[in-house]
Amino acid sequence: MHDRIISNLKLHIPIHPSSIMSIKSTLLWRVVPAITIVIAAILGWFFSHESPVGLFFATVVPLSKGVLPPSIVGQGRMTGTPEVPDELMPQPRPINEKFLDLPRGYKMPQQGLGMCCRPTAYDDVLVYRTILWYLLSGGRHIDGAHLYLNHKAIGKGIAEAIKRGVPREEIFVTTKVFPTEFGYESTLKWVVIYLQDLGLEYIDLVLLHFPSLPPLMSSPCSTEGKDATTCRKETWKALSELREKGLIRNAGVSNFALQHVKDLEGVGAPVANNQIQFNPFVPAHVMETVEYCHENNITITAHSPLGGLTDKSRAFSLAQLNQMAAKYNKRVASIMLRWAIQRGFVVIPGTGNPEHMKENMAVYQFELSDEDMKIINELKYTDPSFIHLDARSAA
Question: C-alpha distances in angstroms, 383 versus 188, 314, 389?
């Protein structure tokens, strides 16, 4: 009875047409404009930055992990990498450390530190600590990029490590030119800025970060009406000149498919390195790129060696890898890093944890058997569904 009375009351409450019009008017003239202003302000904030794509990742990556990013709350507010003790001095380099040969006799450590794609990579204080911990713990290879927006903090960490006794000539620094900076004059300008921000007299390796521009983005080269291939070549010519001047020691590419690498043949300096997603689950076309690089003395840096871009944790659940980890008394991550090193690749695991840095450097201290290498190589046949970055679609 009570429910029926309430129901009847609801049914007989009159709604005057003027009330509906008032609600519509409020939505149209107040709510919608407010939302539009907020969206415009956010877009204006991103696109006014020198690297809108970098700011996007520096904001979204921490937020995706439930962490407020420094781009919103400011630098130095994030927790993570501990302070480095003032009394800590350089430790010995890793036992059995391995290197790959680059043009002109330079050597690239096969194990490095990736400075991307985790919340602590975007906080200047934690980046400084990360670099200092890594270099003082014996590591020597730092992989960065202008896109990561942490050059200055990396440079500060390097400077402090050198001050404490790490020789500059032992440190191998990689950075990358993003496609929004492609173009001959633009590249000449930006690499000088990289050097200033890093506080270095030379950079060991500079890569073209991606083959072409993301959607809705432009570069100094593209605004002149030039296509992606021409812009890559102009950028490469600039890197080749910088190499001749001694401002960079080698040049390479990143996320390049086979046709993109071939485009640079005979343009200038030899391609020293191609940094690509590589793991046991890569499709056949990636192996074609790898084979071409090996045949032409182009080293490979393998990012995402644990699996796909968004499903890395799946590798940890594979029975074969867990059995292998127990056999060698190592973490699954260490097994996969060692596998990549034995395949002849460079690995750049990212971490701000000093203990994980030591574990990653310890991959030089054990070796996988031929049988275990074969098992990992054939994992693609047991789980071929990992998500892969396909660079062939880039112009």
Answer: 44, 10, 17
Closest residue by Cα to residue 344 from 140, 96, 100: 100
**Which residue's structure tokens are 């990212």?**
350
Identify whether the C-beta of residue 272 lies closer than 8 Å to the C-beta of residue 100: no
Classify strands 248-254 and 172-177 as parallel, antiparallel or unpaired.
Answer: unpaired
242 beta partners: none
pLDDT tens digits, 11-64: 455 555 666 666 656 655 555 555 655 555 555 655 567 788 899 989 999 999
Q: How would you class 1 by CB atoms within 10 Å of its CB: exposed for 0-12, middle for 13-18, buried for 19 or more?
A: exposed
Q: How confident is the model at residue 111 (pLDDT cuts 50, 70, 90)?
A: very high
> What single string gives the DSSP state of each residue in 120-157?
GGG-HHHHHHHHHHHHHTT--EEE--GGGT-HHHHHHH
* pTM listed for this prediction: 0.88
Active site residues: 148
User: Residue 109 in contact with residue 97, Cβ under 8 Å?
Assistant: yes
Kindly state the tokens that stand for 192: 């000088």
Angstrom distance (rounded) from CA 232 to CA 224: 14
User: 326 Cβ partners below 8 Å, 6+ apart?
Assistant: none
What are the tokens at 247?
Answer: 């401002």
Eight-state DSSP code of residue 29: I
Q: Rounded to a whole number, what is the distance in angstroms from the first to the last CA of the chain?
A: 71
At 174, give phi and psi (nearest 5°): -115, 140
Strand 141-143 and strand 248-254: the pairing is unpaired
